[in-house]
Amino acid sequence: MLKVLSIFGTRPEAIKMAPVIQALERRSDLVVSRVCVTGQHRQMLDQVLQIFQIRPDYDLDLIEASQSPAQVAAAVLSGEIGTSRQSRCSPYAVERERQRNQLSSPRFGYR
Asked: Which of 17, 47, 94, 99 could make an SS bond with 103 (beta carbons 3.0 to 4.6 A apart)?
């Protein structure tokens, strides 16, 4: 069975990824879908998760006071790599709106 890890952190990213996650969940006979959130824009992200009834399997909760964009990007990448290994998912889909210039968006991978 295919295992897919979907990673996002902001409200716009959640809105974009929700249809993908819902489609994966509809194919639960073929796909094990896992969701990881990074926790940026926490209140707005939680609203979207509730609307689309998405329950994260992993919550990195990475945001701290006074972080620079580079620190956020480093924490997100580090968290994504660790979660990808922990979840043992082969393909992963990442929507990265905020670091569009620093990270490819969306990023799809296979390990």
From this structure: 99
pLDDT-based confidence at residue 83 (cuts at 50, 70, 90):
low
First to last CA, the chain: 15
Q: Which domain CATH number covers 27?
A: 3.40.50.2000
For the chain, give the mean pLDDT: 77
Distances (CA, A) of 88 to 10, 16, 33, 84, 92: 24, 24, 11, 6, 10
Phi and psi torsions of 29, nearest 5°: -70, -20
pLDDT tens sequence across 26-35: 999 999 899 9
Q: What is the pTM of this model?
A: 0.72
Residues in the chain: 111
How far apart (Å, rounded) are the C-alpha atoms in residues 77 and 83? 10
Backbone angles phi and psi of 107, in degrees to 5: -115, 130
CA dihedral 84, 90, 93, 96 (to 10 degrees): 30
The total of structural domains in the chain comes to 1
